[in-house]
From TrEMBL:
UniProt EC number: 2.1.1.72
Pfam families given in the database record: MmeI_hel, MmeI_Mtase, MmeI_TRD
Domain named MmeI-like helicase spacer: residues: 183-252
Protein species of origin: Chromatium okenii
PROSITE patterns: N6_MTASE
UniProtKB keywords: Methyltransferase, Transferase
Protein name listed in UniProt: site-specific DNA-methyltransferase (adenine-specific)
Reactions performed catalytically: a 2'-deoxyadenosine in DNA + S-adenosyl-L-methionine = an N(6)-methyl-2'-deoxyadenosine in DNA + S-adenosyl-L-homocysteine + H(+)
SUPFAM superfamilies documented for this protein: S-adenosyl-L-methionine-dependent methyltransferases (SSF53335)
GO molecular function, a single term: nucleic acid binding
Boundaries of every MmeI-like target recognition domain copy: 793-853
GO biological process, one term: methylation
Boundaries of every MmeI-like DNA-methyltransferase domain copy: 383-624
Amino acid sequence: MTPDQFIAKWQATTLKERSAAQEHFIDLCRLLNEPTPAEIDPNGEFYCFERGAKKTTGSDGWADVWKRNCFGWEYKGKRKNLNEAFVQLHRYAPALGNPPLLIVSDMEHIIIHTAFNGTVPDKHQLALNDLRDPAQLRLLKWAFTEPERLRPTLTTAELTEKAARQFGELAQTLCERGHDTTQVAHFCQQILFCFFAEDIGLLPNQLFSKLLEIGQQRLEHLPATLTNLFNTMATGGFFGNDPVDWFNGGLFDAATPLPLNRADVVTLRELAQLNWSAIEPSILGTLFERGLDPNQREQLGAHYTDPASIMRLVNPVVLEPLRAEWRTQQTAIAALLEKVAGLKSKADKAIATANTTALTTEAANKVGKVRTDASNAEAKAKKQIEKRCRDFLMRLQNFRIIDPACGSGNFLLLALRGLKDLEHEVILDAERLGLPASFPKVGPENVLGIELNAYAAELARVTVWIGEIQWMLNHGFSLAKNPILKKINIIDQRDAVVNADGAEPHWPAADVIVGNPPFLGGSKKRSVLGDDYFSTLETIYAGRISGGADFVTYWFEKARMQIEIGKAKAAGLVSTNSIRGGANRKVLERICATTTIFNAWSDEPWINSGAAVRVSLICFGNTKLKPVLNGEAVAEIYADLTGINNETKADLTTAKSLKENSGACIRGLAKVGQFDVPGDLARQWLNLPNAHGKSNLDVLKPWANGMDIARRSSDNWLIDYGNSLSENQAAFYEAPFEYVLEHVKAQREAQRDEKRKTYWWRLGRSGIEIRTALNPLARYIATPMVAKHRLFVWLDKRVFPDQQLIVIARADDTTFGILHSHFHEIWALRMGTSLGATPRYTPTTTFETFPFPIGLTPADTGGAIETLDSGAVIPTVAAEYQDNAKAIAEAVFQLNQLREEWLNPPEWIERQPEVVAGYLDRILPKPEYAAKLKKRTLTNLYNEHPASLANAHRQLDLAVAAAYGWENDAAEFNEAEILQRLLALNLARNSRK
C-alpha cells in the first residue's frame, strides 16, 4: 500500500472506532511493510489485537493493539478526544508490561507518547498527510521494530539536576542580599510548585509564565502580583480571568514574596522553560535542599544517592513482604476459581447428558441440583474473592512507613511510589477477576517523617506532594480537589533521638521504618554535637549504646526498640560500613538478640552529603522472608554482616590466608596513562634507529589485559621505561618518547600524586614485585580479574600483564591444572568479590585462602620444573606427590591443547614470525576465515561448553580430586560439599600454625 492510497482511504472513511480500528492498523502494517499480528504471532503471545487487559474505567475493554516491548495502541473514533484514549491506555499499561511507547489514533492522527523509564516524556504527532514524508514514516516504523530509537535523550535526572542547580544559585543570591534563609527556602518552594503546577495544567493558560513575563517589564508590581497569586492558590478563586484551584496544604498560607531584581526574573523565566512535569522529586529534594541550606551549598554540584540504591532497603522492608501477602491471596483466589470451574464443568456435563437422554424426575432433579450448586458456589466465590481483594487493598491503605531522619523525603517518596504501584496492580488484578473498578487511596498519609532541619522538613512535604500528583497523572487518574494539597502533618520537625527536655523521644507507631540517619563518627560526636548534647545522649542510652559508637547507631537502637515493643514490624536503615565492628557492632548484636537481620549489603558505595562513602544497608525485624546477604540467600546473617550459606552451614568468612600461598599471586601493573599502542605502530618503531644506537625493543613489550584472554588478542604493545631511566635517557628512544610526551604527560601533570607527576614517562606503579616474580620464568599463568568464566591461560614472560590481570608466578602445568579445576573455580566464586554480576578474582581472599593439595602448594612448586615426554611441565616435588603432579599436568595439558586447537584451527590461520627474534609467532587469520576466527574466543568456547571440553575438565577434576585424597566420585560433588571440604582444609592448616 502506498502513502497516497492509505491517505485517500482513511480520509474518506466514516466507520466507527470498533469496526475501523483493526483494518486501519492492518493497512498501516501494509504501508510500513510490517507483518500483521496474526502473520507472526497467531497465538497472540507477544503481538495481538485486543490484548486481554481490562481497563480501569469500569467497562470491559482491551488495548486495541499490543506488541511486547514496543507499544500499546488505543483507537478512538474520528475527531474523538485522544487525550481520553491516552489516559485509558496509561491506566492499563502495567497490565501490558509497561511498553515503552503508548500510541493513540483516531484514524486521521497518530500520536506516539514515549514512556521510557527515567526519561523526560516526548510526543510525536502525525497527521494523515504527514505519511507522505519518508522521515515520518521511518519514525512510525521504528515504533514497530526499534522503539529504542524513540527514547528521549534527556533523562529526568539530568533535567532535575539542571533545575536544582539553577534554583540553588538563585537561592544563594537571595540569601547573600541578607534575606532570612527560612524565608528564602519557603519562597523558592512556592515558586517551584508554581512551575510544576503550570506544566501539569493545574495553573491554566501558562498563567505563571505570563506573570513573570509581565513582571520583568513592570518589576515594581511583581511582589503584589505574586502575593495575589499565592493568596488565590491558598483559598481557590480567580486570578484575573483565570480560575485557580484551591491548593491549600499550608504551602501558600504565608504569601510574602521576596523582592526580585530584573536578573532574578530573567533566571525564573529561563527556569519556566524547563519541563517541570517530568522532574524527579526523589532527586530534586536532595539537590534543592543543598541550594536552600547555607550549610550545604558547597555540595550543589555533588553526586546524590540514586533511587535504585534506596530501593535496596525499600524493597525488602516494604514491598517484598506485601507482595508475598498478595501472592498468598492470589493462591487462595485461584483455588476458589478452580473449585468453581470444576463444579461448572460437572454441571455442563450433566446438562449435556440431559439434553440427549430422557431423564426420570429424580435424575432431572439431580441435574437441577448440580446446576444450583455450581451457581451458588460461583456467587459465594465471587463474594469471597471480592472480600480478599477489598481486605488487601484496605491493608495497603492503612500501611504506614516512617523515616525518622527523612531529610528532603527521598526515602518516603520512593516507598510511597512502591506502595501505590502495588495498590494499582491489585486494583487491575481485581478488575481481571470481574470486580468493579476502584480508585487508588494510598497517598501521602501513608508516610511519616521526623526531621530536625527546617529546610529539609518543608521540602519533604513538597517532595511527597509532587510525587503523589505525578503518580496520579502518569497513571491516568484525576486529582482529588478541594483542596489539591491535603494538609500534610506527617513530617515532624524535631530531634529523633533527644527531646528538648533531655528525655528520650517517642516515635509514632508504623508498620515499618526506613531511612538514612546522619553519619557522624563516634570520636567526633562531642566536638560536633556539643558537650551538653553528648552527655544527654550518654544518659538516655546508657547500657544500650557505647559512648564511642557512631551517631547513626542511636537510630538503629530506636528502631530495634520500636520492633521489640510492637510499634513496628521491620526496619531498613543505612549506616557507614564501620557498624560491622568495634563499639558500633554492639547495636547489631542487640538487634540479633531480639529480632533478626533478614537482608543486608555489608559494604556498598553510597553518596552522603555529596561525598562517596562505603556503607552497610541493613534490614531487620519480624518477617517471613528468607535471609539474603549481599544479594545471596544465606541461612543466617550475623552481627558482623557475614552469613552462613543455606547448604554448607559453614561460615566461609572464617577462612584465612595460608602462608604457603603467599607471594605467588600478584595483580598486574597499572599504566596510569596511555602507554599502550597498536602492534603495527610498535613494529614500525622496532625498525627505527635511535641516536644512541639502541633498539626500541628495550622499551616495547607485548601487552595483555583481561579482554585479551576472554576474547582474542588485541595485539597491543606497551611502552615501558622501567624504574630507572631518567627523562633524558628515556628521550633517546625517540618515537616511543614522543608518543608518551603527547598522550601521557598532560594527564600525569594533572594528577595529585607527586611521584607520578615527576616521573610521567614511567608506568603508574614500579611493579618491582611482579617484575621480580616473573623474571626467572619462561611463562606464567594469568586470569582476568573480572570475567564471566574463571579462565586461566599461559602467557609468555615477555608479555606484560595489565592491572586487570591476576598473575600466578608459576610455570608448571600442575599448578595450572589445580587452578583450572572445578574445586578452585567454586572457591573463587564464593571467596572473590564481584563487579556488578561478574565475578572478580582477588589475590588475597581467593588465591591466598585456597588450600592446594598437600605437596603441591605454591610453596612446593616454586622451584625447578621438568618437562615430560608429552610436553607437559611438572614442578620438582617430593617423590610421594609426583604421580599426582604428573596426572594433573597431563590432564590440563590435554585440556589446553584442545582449547588451542579450537581457538586457532590450523587450516584457518597463518603463523608469521615476529619482527624481532625470540618472540612467539603472530597468529593471523587467513582472509576467508577472518570473520569466523574472530568468534573463536575462550568466552564463546565456555559459553558453548561442548562435550569434548566437558570431558577434558572432568578428567582434570578426577586427577585433582585424587591429589586431595578424595574418592573417585569427587568430581560429582555438589558445591556445598566442595566448599565444606576446602574450608575444613583451610581451617586445619591455619590451626597447625
